Amino acid sequence: MISIILICICLMSNNYKIDGRMMESISQDDDLELDNQLKLINKPPLKTIQTVFGHIVDCVDINKQLAFDNPLLKNHKIQLKPSFQHGRTTLDENQRSATLSIEEDLCPIGTIPIRRTTKDDLIRLKHLSNNNGMLIEEVEGSHFAAVNLNGADRYYGIKGNINTYNPTVASKEQMSGAYISLAKGPSQVRNRIMAGWQVYPKIQGDVQTYFFIAWENKQNQTGCYNLQCPGFVQIDKKFHIGSPITSTSTFGGQQFEMSVAILLDPTTNNWWVRLEDKNLGYFPSTIFSDMSYADEGGWYGRTMTTLGNPSPPMGSGHFPDDRFGHACFIRQMTFQNETRKDIPPEMKLVGIYKDNPSCYDVKYTGYVDKSLGYAMQFGGPGGNCGD
After folding, report:
1. pTM for this prediction
2. How would you write 219-266 as a 3-class SS string?
3. Which H/E stretch holds residue 32?
4. Per residue in 21-58, pLDDT tens?
5. Residue 121: which H helix or E strand, with range?
6. CB 346, CB 366: distance < 8 Å
7. Cross-strand bridge partners of residue 329
8. From the CB of residue 227, how many other CB atoms can be counted at a distance below 10 Å?
9. How far is the first Cα of the chain from the last one, in angstroms, to the nearest whole number?
10. What pLDDT sits at residue 89?
11. d(CA 297, CA 256)
12. Backbone angles phi, psi at 347, to 5 degrees
């Protein structure tokens, strides 16, 4: 199923305290190695912004961002905008866009906002890598509620307006999220792109809801979350990848959402990520071993926990009941085939997947109405869901 992707930080171990807990740690030499890693990841800023969330955002020269440390992008010519035209999001007066930004302060022209990576960030990623491996596929303790494209076509794009929530996670070992994804190839050599939101303290360090992107190239054993490794080329100068989502929905109350799209540029074969009708940037074609199109994909809810422990709520924590505003939803679902037009996922084109209906469910009947378009509901309370 869907991969959670972790950057591999090659470090030794001793003892190190992070987020108030004693974790597998590092020697003095390895602490120095962490400092060296930070120097490589954090590029010299032209301006620095302190956010109200406690994160530091650096305004970095767009041509000196981390992506261009990738040897595969040595002679890469940056693409400032896609060659395709894409229509605006269909708005619903009952929904509001989730707030995602670096607040009021903006980066200067020619720079992009990048959240500064800290030593704690690297330690968290190292700890995950040591426990779960570099790339995680069908991890025990993971559960899904999804609408999958049935693989009968070649896919060049996917889109959805994803309802945002802040599900409660009881420990740093738990994760809950919702996202869209496209992938190509058998599991052992799969290439994949994901974009959506998640609550995952082991990655972010707290229990807020965050926007995230991720990619993997299993054949080359490369990939990561957000901008933690050289890969994604950011273009937008107002939004930083991995930003907290400050507006989340409540059961039966105000609903918030974000429009997310992953689209292949037919001219460059770069995979663009769009958020709220803005082109955030792209995954260059050269970082994938084979991603000229996708042969699988879909719209997903997912949770994760450690073996033997309860699973967290998914979405609102409630099962689908046909009342949009109760269970989490994704509306205006579309995909693109070789026509490069937005195509609705009719029932004959998709499959419904839920691995534990007693914990999480998904409901999809195709077209709902003009406002929702093709829409799915998913989620549930979690609990003792098995491994």
Report:
1. 0.90
2. CCCEEEECCCCCCCEECCCCCCCCCECCCCCCCCCCEEEEEEEEEECC
3. helix 28-41
4. 434 456 787 788 889 999 999 999 999 999 888 889 99
5. helix 119-132
6. yes
7. 377
8. 24
9. 15
10. 56
11. 24
12. -55, -35
CB-based contacts of 188: which residues, under 8 Å, 6+ apart? Answer: 218
Which two tokens mark 125? 């990623």
Which residues, at least 6 apart from 79, have a Cβ–Cβ distance to it below 8 Å?
Answer: 233, 235, 265, 268, 270, 282
Running DSSP on this structure, what letter comes out for residue 324? B
Amino acid letter, 45:
P
Q: Give the contacts of 286 (CB within 8 A, at least 6 positions apart).
A: 72, 73, 76
- Quote the percentage of the chain above a pLDDT of 70: 85
Report residue 173 CA to chain centroid gap. Answer: 18
372: tokens are 């929702």
Distance CA 373, CA 367 (A): 5
Q: Tens digit of pLDDT for each residue in 295-339?
A: 999 999 999 998 889 999 999 999 999 999 999 999 999 999 999
Helices (H) and strands (E) in the chain, counts: 3, 24
Q: Report which secondary-structure segment, H or E, holds 203.
A: helix 201-204
Structure tokens that stand for 376 in this block: 């799915």
CA distance 288 to 278: 24
Lateral strand order in the sheet of 175-184: 222-225, 210-217, 191-199, 175-184, 296-304, 142-149, 350-354
Tell me which of 348 and 90 has the higher pLDDT: 348
